[in-house]
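Customer escalation, tier 2.

The customer says the design service returned an amino acid string that "doesn't look like it belongs to this structure." They asked us to rerun it and document both sides in this ticket. The original C-alpha coordinates are below, unchanged.
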Protein backbone atom coordinates (compact mmCIF):
# COMPACT_ATOMS: atom_id res chain seq x y z
CA UNK A 1 0.00 0.00 0.00
CA UNK A 2 1.45 3.36 -1.01
CA UNK A 3 1.50 6.06 1.67
CA UNK A 4 2.91 9.55 1.30
CA UNK A 5 1.64 11.53 4.27
CA UNK A 6 -0.85 11.76 7.15
CA UNK A 7 -4.39 10.59 6.48
CA UNK A 8 -7.26 12.04 8.51
CA UNK A 9 -10.05 9.52 9.05
CA UNK A 10 -13.35 10.60 10.59
CA UNK A 11 -14.24 8.37 13.58
CA UNK A 12 -17.41 7.13 11.87
CA UNK A 13 -15.33 5.90 8.92
CA UNK A 14 -13.01 3.74 11.04
CA UNK A 15 -14.08 0.52 9.31
CA UNK A 16 -14.25 1.92 5.78
CA UNK A 17 -11.29 1.08 3.52
CA UNK A 18 -9.23 4.07 2.51
CA UNK A 19 -7.61 4.64 -0.87
CA UNK A 20 -5.03 7.39 -1.23
CA UNK A 21 -5.46 9.32 -4.48
CA UNK A 22 -3.85 12.60 -3.43
CA UNK A 23 -1.28 13.54 -0.83
CA UNK A 24 -0.90 16.77 1.07
CA UNK A 25 -3.28 19.71 0.85
CA UNK A 26 -3.76 21.96 -2.17
CA UNK A 27 -4.29 25.00 0.10
CA UNK A 28 -2.12 24.30 3.17
CA UNK A 29 -2.59 27.84 4.53
CA UNK A 30 -5.16 27.46 7.32
CA UNK A 31 -3.95 29.14 10.51
CA UNK A 32 -4.85 26.16 12.73
CA UNK A 33 -3.32 23.32 10.71
CA UNK A 34 0.17 21.86 10.42
CA UNK A 35 -0.88 18.39 9.29
CA UNK A 36 0.57 18.72 5.80
CA UNK A 37 3.23 21.33 6.49
CA UNK A 38 6.05 19.18 5.12
CA UNK A 39 4.02 17.41 2.40
CA UNK A 40 3.83 18.96 -1.05
CA UNK A 41 0.42 18.46 -2.63
CA UNK A 42 0.23 15.98 -5.48
CA UNK A 43 -1.81 13.25 -7.15
CA UNK A 44 -1.06 9.57 -6.76
CA UNK A 45 -0.06 7.94 -10.06
CA UNK A 46 -2.84 5.80 -11.52
CA UNK A 47 -0.59 2.73 -11.42
CA UNK A 48 -0.13 3.22 -7.66
CA UNK A 49 -3.88 3.61 -7.20
CA UNK A 50 -4.49 0.38 -9.08
CA UNK A 51 -1.85 -1.46 -7.06
CA UNK A 52 -3.50 -0.27 -3.86
CA UNK A 53 -6.91 -1.36 -5.14
CA UNK A 54 -5.51 -4.80 -5.88
CA UNK A 55 -4.29 -5.00 -2.31
CA UNK A 56 -7.62 -3.79 -0.92
CA UNK A 57 -9.44 -6.35 -3.08
CA UNK A 58 -7.41 -9.10 -1.40
CA UNK A 59 -8.64 -7.89 2.01
CA UNK A 60 -12.18 -6.63 1.54
CA UNK A 61 -15.19 -8.48 0.08
CA UNK A 62 -16.01 -8.23 -3.62
CA UNK A 63 -19.42 -6.76 -2.77
CA UNK A 64 -17.97 -3.81 -0.80
CA UNK A 65 -20.42 -0.90 -0.91
CA UNK A 66 -18.38 2.05 0.39
CA UNK A 67 -14.82 3.31 0.12
CA UNK A 68 -13.10 6.53 1.19
CA UNK A 69 -10.60 8.27 -1.07
CA UNK A 70 -7.94 10.46 0.53
CA UNK A 71 -5.82 12.49 1.37
CA UNK A 72 -6.46 16.14 2.23
CA UNK A 73 -8.75 17.21 -0.59
CA UNK A 74 -9.28 14.81 -3.51
CA UNK A 75 -11.76 17.21 -5.15
CA UNK A 76 -8.76 19.34 -6.06
CA UNK A 77 -8.26 16.79 -8.84
CA UNK A 78 -9.93 17.34 -12.18
CA UNK A 79 -13.34 15.82 -12.70
CA UNK A 80 -11.87 13.74 -15.52
CA UNK A 81 -9.32 12.22 -13.13
CA UNK A 82 -11.93 11.59 -10.44
CA UNK A 83 -14.15 9.81 -12.97
CA UNK A 84 -11.23 7.64 -14.08
CA UNK A 85 -10.56 6.72 -10.46
CA UNK A 86 -14.24 5.88 -9.93
CA UNK A 87 -14.14 3.55 -12.95
CA UNK A 88 -11.05 1.87 -11.57
CA UNK A 89 -12.60 1.43 -8.12
CA UNK A 90 -15.67 -0.21 -9.63
CA UNK A 91 -13.46 -2.52 -11.65
CA UNK A 92 -12.35 -4.11 -8.37
CA UNK A 93 -15.50 -3.45 -6.32
CA UNK A 94 -18.43 -3.47 -8.79
CA UNK A 95 -21.08 -2.95 -6.10
CA UNK A 96 -19.60 0.25 -4.72
CA UNK A 97 -22.43 2.74 -4.14
CA UNK A 98 -20.58 5.46 -2.18
CA UNK A 99 -17.14 6.98 -2.74
CA UNK A 100 -16.62 9.31 0.20
CA UNK A 101 -13.86 11.84 0.77
CA UNK A 102 -12.73 14.92 2.67
CA UNK A 103 -12.87 18.17 0.75
CA UNK A 104 -13.24 21.92 1.10
CA UNK A 105 -15.59 24.61 -0.09
CA UNK A 106 -12.71 26.03 -2.10
CA UNK A 107 -12.31 22.90 -4.22
CA UNK A 108 -16.00 22.24 -4.74
CA UNK A 109 -16.69 25.80 -5.85
CA UNK A 110 -14.36 25.32 -8.81
CA UNK A 111 -16.48 22.42 -10.09
CA UNK A 112 -19.18 23.28 -12.63
CA UNK A 113 -22.72 22.07 -11.87
CA UNK A 114 -22.53 19.52 -14.69
CA UNK A 115 -19.26 18.19 -13.26
CA UNK A 116 -20.88 17.65 -9.85
CA UNK A 117 -23.73 15.83 -11.61
CA UNK A 118 -21.16 13.54 -13.25
CA UNK A 119 -19.41 12.91 -9.96
CA UNK A 120 -22.70 12.02 -8.27
CA UNK A 121 -23.46 9.53 -11.05
CA UNK A 122 -19.96 8.12 -10.52
CA UNK A 123 -20.86 7.37 -6.87
CA UNK A 124 -19.13 10.31 -5.15
CA UNK A 125 -21.37 10.99 -2.16
CA UNK A 126 -21.37 11.51 1.63
CA UNK A 127 -18.45 13.91 1.33
CA UNK A 128 -16.98 15.57 4.40
CA UNK A 129 -16.81 19.32 3.83
CA UNK A 130 -14.63 21.49 6.06
CA UNK A 131 -17.22 24.20 6.66
CA UNK A 132 -15.57 25.19 9.98
CA UNK A 133 -17.84 28.26 10.33
CA UNK A 134 -20.51 30.28 8.56
CA UNK A 135 -19.07 33.55 9.85
CA UNK A 136 -16.88 35.67 7.56
CA UNK A 137 -14.78 36.98 10.44
CA UNK A 138 -13.98 33.45 11.58
CA UNK A 139 -13.25 32.24 8.05
CA UNK A 140 -10.81 35.12 7.68
CA UNK A 141 -9.24 34.40 11.06
CA UNK A 142 -8.74 30.75 10.05
CA UNK A 143 -7.52 31.81 6.57
CA UNK A 144 -9.85 29.34 4.85
CA UNK A 145 -9.55 30.98 1.45
CA UNK A 146 -13.27 31.51 0.88
CA UNK A 147 -16.16 33.63 2.16
CA UNK A 148 -19.56 32.78 3.60
CA UNK A 149 -21.13 33.90 0.30
CA UNK A 150 -19.02 31.29 -1.47
CA UNK A 151 -20.16 28.70 1.08
CA UNK A 152 -23.79 29.43 0.21
CA UNK A 153 -23.10 29.31 -3.54
CA UNK A 154 -21.18 26.04 -3.24
CA UNK A 155 -23.70 24.27 -1.03
CA UNK A 156 -26.44 25.31 -3.47
CA UNK A 157 -24.52 23.54 -6.23
CA UNK A 158 -24.09 20.45 -4.05
CA UNK A 159 -27.79 20.43 -3.26
CA UNK A 160 -28.69 20.60 -6.95
CA UNK A 161 -26.29 17.76 -7.74
CA UNK A 162 -27.85 15.57 -4.99
CA UNK A 163 -24.43 14.93 -3.44
CA UNK A 164 -24.97 14.64 0.31
CA UNK A 165 -22.48 16.32 2.57
CA UNK A 166 -21.30 16.06 6.17
CA UNK A 167 -20.57 19.45 7.73
CA UNK A 168 -17.29 19.55 9.66
CA UNK A 169 -17.44 22.37 12.21
CA UNK A 170 -14.83 23.80 14.59
CA UNK A 171 -16.14 24.42 18.10
CA UNK A 172 -14.76 27.59 19.64
CA UNK A 173 -13.13 28.72 16.39
CA UNK A 174 -14.39 32.28 16.82
CA UNK A 175 -12.65 32.73 20.15
CA UNK A 176 -14.01 35.38 22.51
CA UNK A 177 -14.19 38.03 19.79
CA UNK A 178 -16.48 36.25 17.33
CA UNK A 179 -18.12 33.76 19.70
CA UNK A 180 -21.76 34.69 19.12
CA UNK A 181 -21.43 35.34 15.39
CA UNK A 182 -19.69 31.97 14.90
CA UNK A 183 -22.67 30.13 16.40
CA UNK A 184 -25.42 32.23 14.80
CA UNK A 185 -23.96 32.43 11.29
CA UNK A 186 -23.06 28.73 11.24
CA UNK A 187 -26.59 27.77 12.28
CA UNK A 188 -28.01 30.04 9.55
CA UNK A 189 -25.85 28.35 6.90
CA UNK A 190 -26.79 24.83 8.00
CA UNK A 191 -30.47 25.72 8.23
CA UNK A 192 -30.33 26.95 4.64
CA UNK A 193 -28.46 23.88 3.37
CA UNK A 194 -28.98 21.03 5.83
CA UNK A 195 -26.23 18.39 5.76
CA UNK A 196 -26.65 14.66 6.20
CA UNK A 197 -24.61 14.93 9.38
CA UNK A 198 -23.06 17.64 11.53
CA UNK A 199 -19.70 16.77 13.04
CA UNK A 200 -18.25 19.23 15.54
CA UNK A 201 -14.61 19.18 16.58
CA UNK A 202 -13.23 21.43 19.32
CA UNK A 203 -10.57 23.64 17.77
CA UNK A 204 -7.03 22.40 18.35
CA UNK A 205 -4.13 24.85 18.33
CA UNK A 206 -0.96 22.88 17.53
CA UNK A 207 2.40 24.44 18.38
CA UNK A 208 4.04 26.30 15.53
CA UNK A 209 0.80 27.24 13.78
CA UNK A 210 -0.22 30.80 13.03
CA UNK A 211 -3.24 30.36 15.34
CA UNK A 212 -0.91 29.41 18.22
CA UNK A 213 1.05 32.59 17.54
CA UNK A 214 -2.18 34.62 17.53
CA UNK A 215 -3.22 33.06 20.83
CA UNK A 216 0.16 33.77 22.40
CA UNK A 217 0.20 37.44 21.36
CA UNK A 218 -3.43 38.04 22.35
CA UNK A 219 -4.95 38.30 18.85
CA UNK A 220 -7.00 35.17 19.52
CA UNK A 221 -8.52 34.54 22.96
CA UNK A 222 -9.57 30.94 23.48
CA UNK A 223 -12.91 30.02 24.95
CA UNK A 224 -13.01 27.91 28.08
CA UNK A 225 -14.26 24.34 27.83
CA UNK A 226 -17.48 25.41 29.55
CA UNK A 227 -18.04 28.15 26.96
CA UNK A 228 -17.39 25.70 24.11
CA UNK A 229 -19.97 23.28 25.52
CA UNK A 230 -22.45 26.14 26.00
CA UNK A 231 -21.92 27.13 22.38
CA UNK A 232 -22.61 23.58 21.20
CA UNK A 233 -25.93 23.74 23.04
CA UNK A 234 -26.64 27.16 21.53
CA UNK A 235 -25.88 25.83 18.05
CA UNK A 236 -28.20 22.85 18.47
CA UNK A 237 -30.93 25.12 19.81
CA UNK A 238 -30.57 27.44 16.79
CA UNK A 239 -30.67 24.63 14.24
CA UNK A 240 -33.85 24.03 12.26
CA UNK A 241 -32.88 21.03 10.14
CA UNK A 242 -34.64 17.76 9.27
CA UNK A 243 -35.07 15.28 12.12
CA UNK A 244 -32.92 12.76 10.24
CA UNK A 245 -29.79 14.96 10.47
CA UNK A 246 -27.27 13.34 12.81
CA UNK A 247 -25.25 15.43 15.26
CA UNK A 248 -21.89 13.80 15.96
CA UNK A 249 -20.03 15.21 18.94
CA UNK A 250 -17.81 12.28 19.89
CA UNK A 251 -14.56 13.51 18.38
CA UNK A 252 -11.52 12.92 20.61
CA UNK A 253 -10.94 16.69 20.92
CA UNK A 254 -14.29 17.21 22.63
CA UNK A 255 -14.40 17.27 26.44
CA UNK A 256 -18.17 16.70 26.43
CA UNK A 257 -19.12 14.01 23.93
CA UNK A 258 -22.78 13.84 22.94
CA UNK A 259 -24.29 12.52 19.70
CA UNK A 260 -27.77 11.84 18.35
CA UNK A 261 -30.36 12.69 15.71
CA UNK A 262 -31.81 16.17 15.56
CA UNK A 263 -35.28 14.74 16.18
CA UNK A 264 -34.02 14.40 19.75
CA UNK A 265 -32.85 18.01 19.94
CA UNK A 266 -33.85 18.54 23.57
CA UNK A 267 -32.26 15.24 24.56
CA UNK A 268 -28.98 16.36 22.95
CA UNK A 269 -29.03 19.63 24.89
CA UNK A 270 -29.88 17.78 28.12
CA UNK A 271 -26.97 15.45 27.39
CA UNK A 272 -24.56 18.39 27.32
CA UNK A 273 -26.05 19.81 30.53
CA UNK A 274 -25.52 16.45 32.18
CA UNK A 275 -21.90 16.34 30.98
CA UNK A 276 -21.30 19.74 32.60
CA UNK A 277 -22.77 18.48 35.91
CA UNK A 278 -20.58 15.38 35.77
CA UNK A 279 -17.46 17.43 35.07
CA UNK A 280 -18.27 19.85 37.89
CA UNK A 281 -18.01 16.84 40.22
CA UNK A 282 -15.23 14.80 38.64
CA UNK A 283 -12.98 17.43 37.04
CA UNK A 284 -14.20 20.96 37.87
CA UNK A 285 -10.97 22.73 36.96
CA UNK A 286 -11.20 21.63 33.32
CA UNK A 287 -14.46 23.48 32.65
CA UNK A 288 -13.07 26.95 33.24
CA UNK A 289 -9.74 26.35 31.56
CA UNK A 290 -8.73 26.66 27.89
CA UNK A 291 -7.02 23.43 26.91
CA UNK A 292 -4.07 23.45 24.56
CA UNK A 293 -4.55 20.65 22.04
CA UNK A 294 -1.63 19.55 19.89
CA UNK A 295 -3.89 17.91 17.31
CA UNK A 296 -6.78 18.93 15.08
Amino acid sequence: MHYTGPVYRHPLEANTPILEITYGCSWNKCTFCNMYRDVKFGASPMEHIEEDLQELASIYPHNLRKITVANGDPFALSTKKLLEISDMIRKYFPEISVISCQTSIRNIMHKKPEELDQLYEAMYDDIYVGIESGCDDVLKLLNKGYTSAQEYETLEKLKNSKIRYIALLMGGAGGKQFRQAHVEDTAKLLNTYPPKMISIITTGIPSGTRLAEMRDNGEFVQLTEREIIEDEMALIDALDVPNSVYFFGHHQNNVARVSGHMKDKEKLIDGFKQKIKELEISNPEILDSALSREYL
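Tier 2 assessment: The sequence is consistent with the input. The first strand starts at residue 18 and ends at 20. The mean pLDDT is 93. Sent an explanation to the customer and offered a walkthrough call.
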